[in-house]
């Protein structure tokens, strides 16, 4: 929910592919000649300086790779369904074939599940015309216009030649992505939605590897309390997405102001939003054996410095200037999401939501998934 702006890094940089546009390489992963992990403990990402004590360890292949092999992989797609996301949804729906082809070629043959949820987790008691109380609540969603999976489940599955939907897996999954719409709550909470969805034991198999893809054009706003979304809370400033920035990061060690300014050194902080490390990085690191979890975040890169723009005077409104844009798609700095990728380490990747093709990011994800087998 952004006032005065259209509502509307990372994939793994493969050694055999040229990195396009805004996409940047995760320093902990290299495609090498065989797409394998290497010891990158001496490679320090600029945003990780001073953060070792905060929880990201030096990762070595022997620490990451479990000697046992998973039986298949479960893939969760967390899709932003707020305003301005129609095109990114279409691009991911088109390019998801890249992921599925990689899953079809896994050692031992196809054995996977793919499910979709959205970033809409509602606003509790502060529901309004734009945001309901619970949103989609991390549920696995199959729109009515999409092929219905057999067996009363909300995910597409392929094991060997057995598929649980009519038609192709590609078409079914693409439909589940692009039919989520763009009328969801503008306070995106992809990390909270991910956590809730991954608690779905009917979807996540204990013996399977896990992959998560997050698609959004704004930063994560996973709130500790829905009070953050109270439109009448004057102390929280204008009722807009700027609250997620103002109360979710610290810039040069201080809370961002309600004024037009240029500020730098912004990193996740404060108590209004769930801590990225303890709430989400540690979840991903412990939910499966080491090396079994892969992550791709498709969002807007963080910016340094970042421009705070005043969008209106009466009432006063503010927004953070976009860090990427293409056509009708604006991407706003993903400080928390980029931090998640940096902290999670070698099995994570970041690609720009403003790239009109997500194939390279998905190819990187496939390599990371394959490394577990």
Counting helices, strands and paired strands, the structural category is alpha/beta
Widest beta sheet: strand line-up:
4-3-2-1-5-9-14
Q: What is the rounded distance between the termini?
A: 41 Å
CATH class of the domain at 46-223 and 273-304 and 325-370: Alpha Beta
The average pLDDT score comes to 86
Query: How many β-strand runs?
Result: 14
Low confidence ranges: 3-65
User: Looking at the structure, what is the overall shape?
Assistant: globular
The radius of gyration is: 20 Å
Q: Helical proportion? A: 10-25%
Can you tell me about this structure?
The chain has a domain at 46-223 and 273-304 and 325-370: von Willebrand factor, type A domain (Rossmann fold), CATH 3.40.50. The model is unreliable at 3-65 (pLDDT under 50). The chain has helices at 61-64, 86-104, 169-178, 190-198, 242-246, 276-286, 335-344, 359-370, and strands at residues 73-79, 111-118, 156-159, 162-163, 209-215, 249-251, 261-263, 266-268, 293-299, 306-313, 316-320, 324-326, 329-331, 348-352. The chain is built from eight helices and 14 strands. The protein has 373 residues and is an alpha/beta fold. It has a seven-stranded mixed sheet with strand order 4-3-2-1-5-9-14, sandwiched between helices. A three-stranded antiparallel sheet has the order 7-10-11, with no helix packed on it. A two-stranded antiparallel ribbon has the order 6-8.
